[in-house]
Design brief:
- With 447 residues, the protein is an alpha/beta fold.
- The protein has a single domain, classed as TIM Barrel, CATH 3.20.20.80.
- It contains 16 helices and eleven strands.
- Strands 1-2-3-4-5-6-8-9 form an eight-stranded parallel beta barrel, surrounded by six helices. A two-stranded antiparallel sheet has the order 10-11.
- The longest helix is centred in the middle third of the chain and has 25 residues.
- The chain is globular.
- The two termini are 21 Å apart.
- 51% of the residues are buried.
- The chain binds 5-hydroxymethyl-3,4-dihydroxypiperidine.
- 5-hydroxymethyl-3,4-dihydroxypiperidine binds next to loops.
């Protein structure tokens, strides 16, 4: 599948792999606080050590290069690179400079997310994303990073999954900072998206030549019922999961049903000019897709998840449903005529993997990936411009509230020894990439 220009990559995020939370003047983040709070993460796990990528980064770059991917998506830890007074932290910046330089030397294209959920705690202490001012602090951070790392980055992404930051962080409390009120979620979302708009301007000012976009997680919602109330519930689910983010970004407004039907009285405070800032043209849109949900009406204005029996699931309990990725890409193209070129910035699955005799046998992941590659290919055949695909994740890592139990990596990590072992899926992915390269060469060179 996919033209020779199609980019294949792997992805990670700072708090999930770096560890070294006290090194070189890094400030505390909301995830340090959250995971230190009893009962918030499985087994009390935290990112304190994670994959020790902060010290093992060179070995990890070798791993990435060894896989033969074209690109690597990573995120920068805001609390590592900026002091509380807004000045640059040279030691933190040097870490990313070294990492990005080495990736470039190995011929790997670098896609950098500015915010993958590790908000500095001192900003949370002033209200976090409920405080409008945080959007401007994010723009300052974006300007600092774009200025300092300019020339080392091939694609910028402002935010990773604002839906998760807003809904899981402020709507149901499953993620840091652990607040739970739909009105908080909608206001936090508005400030996150404002931050995105301001951040985009800052990136374009300080690193004008590099494409910039944002990453949204999307979910497929269907119903196994023919009751109109259940069909409407599935529609509302997708509205809440997808259009709550995509509509402001691409059409400059929030879906009215969100605040009128789903969460009455929860509309955020929007000031004149805000929506224009949010709706600036994107060079690309990152899409993260994992699963489908089966919905029924909750009997009032909302929906409830009624898991289907007899379907294939992952270690997360998520249904494996590649068709959902094709469906959503086609729908976004139909509903948003200005849909920019898309990268699948995350897709992958968790399984309970173990090393046996030096090998990790993970057939479900190999099959999962193949089926999702095919779904992307089908969407491209239907006219959606998809430019690349990043597997989540390069290696097993800190899966937020689920700690280290859930293993999403192509590479297995032994958290006691920090040994990395390529799972069979990594070997298969490497072979797939080698074959694709060989196929792109003139026949005379490959025979
Ligand atoms: O691990 C996360 C990642 O940080 C954001 N997207 C979903 C992944 C799997 O849950």
């Amino acid at each position: 599948m996919a033209s020779p220009g199609f980019l294949w990559g792997v992805a990670t995020a700072s708090y999930q792999i770096e560890g070294a939370i006290h090194a070189d003047g890094r400030l505390p983040s909301i995830w340090d606080t959250f995971s230190a709070t009893p009962g918030k993460t499985l087994g009390g796990d935290s990112g304190e050590h994670a994959c020790e990528h902060y010290t093992r980064w060179a070995e990890d770059v070798d791993l990435i290069a060894d896989l033969g991917v074209d690109g690597y998506r990573l995120s920068i830890a805001w609390p590592r690179v900026m002091h509380a007074d807004g000045t640059p932290n040279a030691a933190g910046l040097d870490f990313y400079r070294r990492l990005l330089t080495r990736l470039g030397e190995r011929g790997i294209r670098r896609f950098v997310t500015l915010y993958h959920w590790d908000l500095p705690q001192h900003l949370e202490d002033r209200g976090g994303w409920l405080n409008r001012d945080t959007a401007w602090r994010f723009a300052d951070y974006a300007a600092l990073v774009a200025r300092e790392l300019r020339g080392l980055v091939d694609g910028w992404m402002t935010l990773n999954e604002p839906w998760c930051s807003a809904f899981l962080g402020y709507g149901n409390g499953h993620h840091a900072p652990g607040l739970a009120d739909p009105r908080y979620a909608t206001q936090a979302m508005h400030h996150l998206l404002l931050g995105h708009g301001l951040g985009l301007q800052a990136i374009r000012e300080h690193d004008p030549g590099t494409p910039a976009g944002i990453v949204a997680n999307v979910g497929r919602g269907t119903t196994d019922s023919s009751d109109p109330a259940d069909i409407e519930a599935a529609r509302l689910y997708e509205l809440q999961h997808n259009d709550w983010v995509l509509q402001p970004l691409l059409a400059g407004r929030y879906p009215a049903d969100l605040f009128e039907r789903l969460w009455p009285g929860s509309a955020p405070l929007v000031l004149p000019g805000d929506m224009d800032l949010i709706r600036q043209p994107l060079d690309f849109l990152g899409i993260n897709y994992y699963f489908r949900s089966n919905l029924r009406s909750d009997g009032a204005t909302g929906f409830r998840d009624v898991p289907l029996d007899g379907v294939e699931r992952t270690q997360m309990g998520w249904e494996v449903y590649p068709q959902g990725l094709e469906d959503l890409l086609r729908r976004f193209k139909a509903v948003y005529p200005n849909l920019p070129p898309v990268y699948i910035t995350e897709n992958g699955m968790a399984s309970d993997d173990a090393v046996v005799d030096g090998r990790v046998d993970d057939p479900q992941r190999q099959s999962y990936l193949k089926r999702h590659f095919a779904a992307v290919s089908a969407a491209m055949d239907a006219g959606v411009e998809v430019r690349g695909y990043f597997v989540w994740s390069l290696m097993d890592n800190f899966e937020w509230a689920f700690g280290y139990e859930r293993r999403f990596g192509l590479v297995h990590v032994d958290y006691t020894t920090q040994a990395r072992t390529l799972k069979d899926s990594a070997l298969a992915f490497r072979t797939f990439l080698q074959q694709r390269r060989a196929a792109a060469l003139p026949a005379a060179l490959t025979t």
